[in-house]
């Protein structure tokens, strides 16, 4: 056979091994490019009587099939074309399924590496799934994260295989499963080491040709709970409750902002209630509708921007980043221990932490060990690897072990003289070419580097809390920072698993800076009579994960106040908020950390409604209704306008970086694509009109950035 993207082999026993190997690509993705080959292969599998069973796998070293080719989505300009493309995929997948359901030829999916989206759906067409126990192996349906639904039959075959509840959980959240978890819920039948995957798959395929129907039912090892759930799903009443609950949970998460999960749920329901034919038709129709929706386009823009950033070295010229084998971390507190964790666990470096006393070292090491243990319990690392990871991180109270570090990341208290002092001391110990990064959240890098011997090696690496979870790293380039230092920090941040943007050294850099006017505006609204709940509810409805008042509690009201002051000093009165906020500090209301903030906290630190006494502390009278739309408009535009100023002043290298920074660092609603994508969607002229109207009411703080006016005039977009 003449194949471009597959290899094909039949052994002496009649087992055909079909391996996907998309030409010139590192990853296998599903798109029309593969269809010619698949047709050829299926013709042969269907009609060659020598072939008794099929193993369907991948020739790539670390992926089975990672999903649909997203670039192909971009070519689907109207819903009808998209719907037709899906129908073609359905037909192809139906042929694979018919090999075992109609022709009696068992099909075993041999899964190693990413088996996601269309990949998982392909695996679902097989009669059996075997996955490797490798940490790279993951199965799931992440489509909703791109604003679409599983449309290769996933909304129909997945509930059939693992039950409605388990299928909805995967489809509506988009989360993926590791092999052992996938086996537990019945998504895969067997888990084996990678070395024997194809052999075991061939053996099982051959065994299945003679096995009694349903002989090796996967149900035999499902948990009693899961079986009970499946029984519940057999009756219409049980199903009704289940769908209702799933919908409620989904709406509580999405606030109705994301149409994809809603449609996915409907497609599953249609399939269950009206049969698969109706289900597949709904799947295709919904996919067509969603793939051209603004939400999906915005989500895909974030996906593409993230992909681009993976390749972006962070500097314009071509420089080789310095190799980082060992990292020194100054301060093992909240941030330092998180940075140590990702440096050892993700980047695989040796880590030396410097703390002020043994108790500090113990706390930091305990933090790293807890994280390693989590990995071990989830079987993401084996016992001996866990031991090895723990030994990678050590602590000291002096500078021992810093003489051979390649990179220092400083995360001590936010205190300029302390940071300068540590930089000076470090320069006396570390190699001459070691890069020094500060994790400061507000101090200009240039002032930390003021007395430095090698200021060209000093920059900022601004992480977000909790470091293991938050995806963004903001690298701050000061005026004297060299390209090599920037490229080194960027490359290292990527190894730590971060999406990295490089920004200029203005006060607050990018993320802290655009958060400032947003938080300040929330304080003004509070002063004008809006309630804490009303403000938070409005912004959560707009799409932020938490509202600004709760965020202040989380970050620390004292920390926020300190930063607010620094911002006013740097940018003047337009950044100033209402003075009443100082009363919170006088009353020692610091937020969650001392269980006294805008919200009430119980002894365990659990949040429990708004603390009404906060209005009295602030000297504020009774609350009045301010419409959610006004709250949303004022807060969102305050942030967006500041982002535009950052681009105008060269703090940002691109609008793309601004969108990624806001979405990944601050939780700007992903379905709006980020501040710049949002301006493009609404239109710069409209945004300027709204800002002008706000400036008329509230003054200079809403004065539109010139760059917005320019785009309003020219009609040019920020993002292509
Ligand atoms: P933290 O108070 O939890 O940790 C600071 C640690 O530094 C403490 O464990 C302290 O013992 C240690 N330390 C102080 N002086 C030292 C010295 N001379 N040598 C070695 N260790 C010393 O503070 P956190 O929250 O980790 O913040 C650290 C830095 O990260 C600050 O600059 C902060 O502004 C910045 N940052 C904080 C974020 C947050 O969400 N907490 C987010 C981004 C940046």
Q: What would your notes on this structure say?
A:
This protein has 720 residues and is of the alpha/beta class. It is built from 30 helices and 20 strands. The strands form 4 sheets. Strands 13-12-11-14-15-16-17-18 form an 8-stranded mixed sheet, with helices on both faces. A 6-stranded mixed sheet has the order 1-2-3-5-7-10, sandwiched between helices. A 4-stranded mixed sheet has the order 4-6-8-9. α18 links the parallel β15 and β16 (458-463). The mean pLDDT is 95. 1,4-dihydronicotinamide adenine dinucleotide is lined by residues 330-336, 354-356, 360, 411-414, 422, 439-441, 462-465.
What would you say about this model in short?
With 720 residues, this protein is an alpha/beta fold. It is built from 30 helices and 20 strands.
Helical percent range? 40-55%
CATH superfamily of the largest domain: 2-enoyl-CoA Hydratase, Chain A, domain 1
Shape: globular
CATH architecture of the largest domain: Alpha-Beta Complex
CATH class of the largest domain: Alpha Beta
- Quick one: biggest sheet? 8 strands, mixed
* Rg (CA only): 28 Å
Bound molecules: 1,4-dihydronicotinamide adenine dinucleotide
Core attributes:
720 residues, alpha/beta, 2-enoyl-CoA Hydratase, Chain A, domain 1, Rossmann fold, N-(1-d-carboxylethyl)-l-norvaline Dehydrogenase, domain 2, 3 domains, six-stranded mixed sheet, 30 helices, 51% helix, globular, binds 1,4-dihydronicotinamide adenine dinucleotide
Secondary structure elements and pairings:
Layout: E1 6-10, E2 15-20, H1 35-47, E3 53-58, E4 63-65, H2 70-74, H3 79-101, E5 107-111, E6 114-116, H4 118-124, E7 128-132, E8 138-140, H5 154-162, H6 164-173, E9 176-177, H7 179-184, E10 190-192, H8 197-210, H9 224-233, H10 236-254, H11 259-274, H12 276-291, H13 294-311, E11 326-330, H14 334-345, E12 350-354, H15 358-377, H16 383-392, E13 393-396, E14 407-410, H17 416-429, E15 435-438, H18 445-448, E16 458-463, E17 472-477, H19 483-495, E18 499-504, H20 511-528, H21 532-542, H22 548-555, H23 557-571, H24 582-586, E19 599-601, E20 607-610, H25 613-617, H26 628-648, H27 655-666, H28 675-682, H29 684-698, H30 706-714
Parallel strand pairs: 2-3, 3-5, 4-6, 5-7, 6-8, 7-10, 11-12, 11-14, 12-13, 14-15, 15-16, 17-18
Antiparallel strand pairs: 1-2, 8-9, 16-17, 19-20
1,4-dihydronicotinamide adenine dinucleotide (NAI) binds next to helix 14 and strand 16.
